[in-house]
Description:
Layout: H1 8-15, E1 32-35, E2 38-42, H2 55-68, H3 83-96, E3 100-104, H4 107-118, E4 124-128, H5 133-142, E5 145-149, H6 154-162, E6 170-175, H7 187-196, E7 200-204, H8 219-222, E8 231-235, E9 245-249, H9 251-258, H10 262-265, H11 272-287, H12 290-308, E10 320-324, H13 328-340, E11 343-344, E12 346-348, E13 359-363, H14 370-386
The structure holds 4'-deoxy-4'-aminopyridoxal-5'-phosphate.
The site of 4'-deoxy-4'-aminopyridoxal-5'-phosphate (PMP) has 14 residues, from α4.
Amino acid sequence: xxxxxxxxxxxxxxxxxxxxxxxxxxxxxxxxxxxxxxxxxxxxxxxxxxxxxxxxxxxxxxxxxxxxxxxxxxxxxxxxxxxxxxxxxxxxxxxxxxxxxxxxxxxxxxxxxxxxxxxxxxxxxxxxxxxxxxxxxxxxxxxxxxxxxxxxxxxxxxxxxxxxxxxxxxxxxxxxxxxxxxxxxxxxxxxxxxxxxxxxxxxxxxxxxxxxxxxxxxxxxxxxxxxxxxxxxxxxxxxxxxxxxxxxxxxxxxxxxxxxxxxxxxxxxxxxxxxxxxxxxxxxxxxxxxxxxxxxxxxxxxxxxxxxxxxxxxxxxxxxxxxxxxxxxxxxxxxxxxxxxxxxxxxxxxxxxxxxxxxxxxxxxxxxxxxxxxxxxxxxxxxxxxxxxxxxxxxx
Length: 396
Ligand code: PMP
């Protein structure tokens, strides 16, 4: 059998004892987790609202298993559609302000399904250079011509749009909240350009749902531009404390996707437990605004504290806070040092970011306490000073 060589960077990091990936956690995803039998503060989770361990959501999952069993044993297209799937689709469409929605088994599959079927060989897909990997892969599957513009740079977007033939189909696809940088897509300007150059818009709101907008309805809602966005994509693996994804749009587009998105038609549907937990999370998000309020209080508290302590932060507008290290090996080393010292954060290195922009991705949950945030920032400051990381302005 043909064997690939191991990835060089992973081998080197393992030899140096600073390999930071696939760390096994032996507890629920919460503000504290257990790794190697030790308590570790979790500041690297996408569970922004801290709902993954909520007893009501766990109970809804268990009940769904009792009623519907553990799996659907087929795709939505054939034997895998439950009444529960339809109910969640109706609720999500109303929640984000679109006519219809369709569920996929992951957010990654939702993006693959949308891009591979909404655009084709003679069309153009226009991407922000920092869009998520699933958008890039979906674009490749579409055989469309892919054009990238510099991150959130509207002059560059306009220059790229100007160069395209006016009569062809064009779709701009952006992350609503960028997954590593934490900043928001400049949707008002993107909408204006899309109107001027007759272009569709799709927003991947994996990190915006449950975080920004009316009751957490996402980036389009935040800017009051829901009607101007053609397709909204979301995932349940972050604020919604579950697993799965969806696309929401007008009724015709969703009907088309149901009969053409191959990652939907040829893949098994969301499990009953995943659907029920997503629905229970949606109940909580729609009726208990205090979770989003606490998430933002925590985010602002952490941001202020990190800035006060002299860390170099990215221009975030969300609970995702990039803390720059600007050195690949030190980024791994510090993530390891922090974990040994009881703090989990995610190291971000190329190809996710440019080589001179390596960082720790520090992310907040609504369930963190201010004490936990202070403890985490103190641990970071200690570790940055020990490793002599120059982005820390003042050493302790
Ligand atoms: N889009 C973005 C912006 C993401 O960050 C992610 C997950 N990291 C996905 C899509 C894929 O979602 P899922 O985890 O549900 O496959």
